[in-house]
Structure formats: structure tokens, C-alpha cells
Design a protein that fits this description.
The chain is of the alpha+beta class. It has two domains: 1-50; 70-134, no CATH class. It is built from four helices and three strands. It starts with a helix and ends in a 19-residue tail after the last helix.
Amino acid sequence: PEDVAGLGRVAELIGLELAEANALWRAQRQQQDAEATLRASRDLQAIIRRERDPDQLLERTTAQLADVFGADGVSIMLANSQGELSVRSSRGLSDVAKLDRKKIGEGISGRVAQTGKPILLSGQVQGGSDPTAS
């Protein structure tokens, strides 16, 4: 009985140590993420300050975003005077996807354009389907 009580106390202490180690790891991870975000922001600002050619600015920004997010596919779409979105710069998109056009509010890109809020996708997205739609 005394050994069982002692083992119980040891288990509690180990649990507390593990919880503290986990909290420390999480805090360090958050700091690393914040530092990476700050570096990416500074890198993008430097690109914007240096680059005068709009097409090159879009290309370099697209490449930087792909690197920062570790993304296989990144695109920047711009709206024309009729409110139709088309790909102006991309990384990892098929030729067919580069030719795609969307109206504001339509699909993932159209929804982002409409709301002004980013959507971070993970995994494979087929045919521009909206994974956030119910």
C-alpha cells in the first residue's frame, strides 16, 4: 500500500513535469512561428520596395508565398473591369487552371475576393471546389 501511494505521487510529479514541458514547447513553437511570419513580412516588403515591374513583383511575391507556406500551388488572381478574376501569377498550377476565370463570389478565389479574408487550404483541392462550402 505504501509503495502504491509513493508510485501514485511519482506519477503525479511526472505528469506535472510533462505538462510544463509541453507548455514550454508550445510557447517556443509560437515564438518560432511569429519570427517566421515577421521574416516573411520583411522579405515581402523588401520585394515590394525593390521591384518596379508589376509582372515581376507578382512573380516574386508568388514565389515567396509558396516558400513561406510550403505550398505546392499558389496563385494571385486579379479582377478585370467586369469583375472577372483571372490568374496573373502562379506556382504549381496546371495550364488549364491558369486559364480559369471566376466571378467575384464564385469558388474559392471568388469568395476570397468577395470577403477579403484569406482561406488557407491543405490537401488536394479538385477543380476549384470550395472545401468550406457545406
